[in-house]
Amino acid sequence: MAADQQKTAGLRERKKAKTMAAVQRHAMRLFRESGYHATTVEQIAEAAEISPSTFFRYFATKEDVVSSDNYDPILISAFEEQPADISPLRALRNAVMAGLSELSAEELETVWERNRLIVSVPELRASMLNNLSQTMQMITEMIAKRIDRKPDDLAVRTMSGAAIGVIISVLLNYAEHPEANLIQLMDEGLAQLEAGLPL
User: Which keywords accompany this UniProt record (predicted)?
Assistant: First the structure.
């Protein structure tokens, strides 16, 4: 892909991510006001000034508006831009930090609200686990490509699984401690993993 095409694709992905984040902010407000179960997709779409059909272009279900986001392409791009001479885990840590640093204060607030809601609604926890398993597969493929190994390599899968474990622990911690700094927590968690998980 030519540089101009990559730049256009990157801008498109960022715009999509911003639109998804805006819909999520409206959804979170409605969930606060009326409760998760009482809020409909139609109400979320109306608040976001989009049609229900447009909502479903971004989110397959109401659960997805809480459990999913569109930051994966940003993570992939940041990962691929990492220097070849650093470890896959350091490249992943750098890419995650780069992606999080792009989030506005409002987007970080939405992340906290989403995590708090996921912890309290059972069907959302199931949706989150499905979403994270897809992210783990994506990370597995990114690492395998970087080190020229197969995605079904157990060592590669173990590394991506460990990274997802860190992400889950950080997000749960952040849901319980909204005063914390998500970016700092994530960096500390991934640094601990990179150091071999010392206690």
Answer: DNA-binding, Transcription, Transcription regulation
**Average of pLDDT values for 160-172?**
94
pLDDT higher for 130 or 3? 130
What's the pLDDT at 8?
60
- For every residue of 53-122, DSSP letters joined together read HHHHHH-SSTTHHHH--S-HHHHHHHHHTS-TTS-HHHHHHHHHHHHHHT--HHHHHHHHHHHHHHHH-H
Domain 3-194 listed as CATH 1.10.357.10: yes
Mean predicted lDDT score pLDDT of the chain: 90
DSSP category for residue 35 = -
Does the pLDDT of residue 95 top 90, yes or no?
yes
What is each CA distance from 21 to 74, 104, 171, in whole angstroms?
Answer: 14, 10, 17
* CA distance linking residue 102 with residue 74, whole number of Å: 10
User: 164, 148 in Cβ contact below 8 A?
Assistant: no
Q: What percent of the chain has pLDDT over 70?
A: 95
Domain boundaries along the sequence of the chain: 3-194
